[in-house]
Amino acid sequence: MPGDLNGLFSGYDAKKRAYDPKSWAFPEGRGRKGQEGSTLKDPNCVLPAAAEALRPYTPDLVSSITGTPKETLLQVYETYGSTGKPDKAGTELYAMGGRSTRWGRRTSAP
Length: 110
Prior knowledge:
By secondary structure, the protein is an alpha+beta fold.
């Protein structure tokens, strides 16, 4: 299971210090679309694992970390949650603030 791999991807061979990507294939009969009619009970399903990892981040905790008022966070969550409909779309963006220099990429200030 993913949680049992100590931060490594499946298929890692410690002696060879390399991965065997064959273990990354979709299970037989599931194809690229995944499992039809999934109940999210599959231990390899990412959604339950993500929900468990994010469970401690209550609106109060996120507010204390980010400095964003709790009421504003709740409004953002409500707005984003309302996009879970066939005629709507929600988008998430992520950036580390990396920048390029003549010495290569940096992810922090000098």
